[in-house]
Design brief:
elongated; Methane Monooxygenase Hydroxylase, Chain G, domain 1; 3 helices; mainly alpha; disordered N terminus
Length: 106
């Protein structure tokens, strides 16, 4: 479970002993909001009986948008959390990243 701090984009994690402060939090939130809106549009396309090919193209666009968000979060995590984990010899954090990447790439 994550507990939010007062600073925008900063959270304190139960798993790690440092403050998670990420430079791209607002960008990630904005991109996720757009992806959610796009997915809602795709849902409406299905409800309206739109052509399956059109729906599949739009689903591909949603998947690409989520992939972009994932890359931003991953890069931010490596630049902040993993650098800190290496400095602290926190092998658990590195193992958690490996597991997260495995799940992301499935």
């Amino acid at each position: 479970m994550m507990e939010e701090e007062k600073n925008e984009g900063s959270v304190l994690s139960e798993h790690h002993e440092h403050l998670h402060s990420h430079a791209h939090t607002q960008d990630v939130k904005n991109r996720l909001s757009r992806a959610i809106g796009h997915l809602e549009s795709v849902k409406k396309m299905v409800e309206d009986g739109r052509d399956c090919s059109e729906v599949l193209v739009q689903l591909a666009a949603v998947r690409a948008a989520l992939g972009s968000v994932s890359r931003i979060i991953l890069k931010d995590h490596i630049e902040h959390c993993i650098v800190h984990a290496v400095e602290e010899n926190d092998m658990e954090a590195i193992s958690e990243l490996e597991n997260a990447i495995d799940k992301l790439l499935k």
